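I keep forgetting this: the sequence line spells out the residues, with the fold written below as integer tokens. I include a record here:
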Amino acid sequence: MRVLALVPGGVSEQLLFFPTLEHLKHAFPKAEISVAVEPAAKAAYRVSALVKEVFPYDFTQRNSPSDWANLLGIIRDREFEVVITATQSGSLALLLWLSGVPTRVGYSNGANTLFLTDTVPDKAAQYQASHYHDLLAGLSVNGPCPNAVINVPQKDIDWVNSQIKQQGIGDQGYVLMYGGPTDDGQQYPVDNWAAIIQDFQARQPGLPLVLIQQPETAALVQDLTQRLPNLKVVRPDNSGQVAALIAGANLMLSTDSYPLQLGVALNVFTLALFGANPVEQRLPALTGSETRFVGLTSTTGKVADITAKTVLGKVWGEA
């Protein structure tokens, strides 16, 4: 069975879709799964062993007739038997109808319903991974939403191990920090990051503090390393290297962004700073007595309003 999933959004959204892929493959072991995603989100699938092909498609911009026709041609050429769409676009639903795919599953909301063969209720207020997972009910695949599973290439693990050795980080773990923008485009102030790091250095002087440097965090990392001594900086080139770096951390502090979703998939203790996105839609519900993923947000919906004192109080169990 050849299956195509249409998943708009960034890398975080793709990682939140991974549990759906996991259950789909479990239900149909011989299925060949492909996805259509935003061009920048293609990077997520470096850490997935379940997807055969990734097709770039810009869901957010006004596409030309040729872009629309190109996607239609891809779907027809691959002779998909099932398509799952996480979009609410009537034009894309029409495209799927024109493609001739016999089974077309999506949410029962909006104009797209007219062109789908099976729909499921659109319970968008829940945890986003569960929201995606609901789509499988349209294929009569039921049961709880599983955890995300990622597969980090060995060469990415080896690269991170070499970085740890070269920088003398040691083998007792480290605290990892990612200060990039939240998925809703907000920045956490550099002064707050500096205050958090200074507190860590005062309380745990022997514990390595590692900053993830990506293009979007370059200015922040430069500022922090100029202010504060003994910080380690690792510059991953891809999502596999980021995942391998997260896997070795004792604790990760991150904004609401794709490293947070990698931390959840890897079951690493993670404290995340949220802007306007509801925490309950981005983090799994708490189970058991151990809390591994904690989200902090302000009453204003502005991530900058979360004080360094609030973050540190949660880290040290003082809040």
Q: What stands out?
A: The domain at 154-315 is CATH 3.40.50.2000 (Rossmann fold). The radius of gyration is 21 Å. The mean pLDDT is 94.
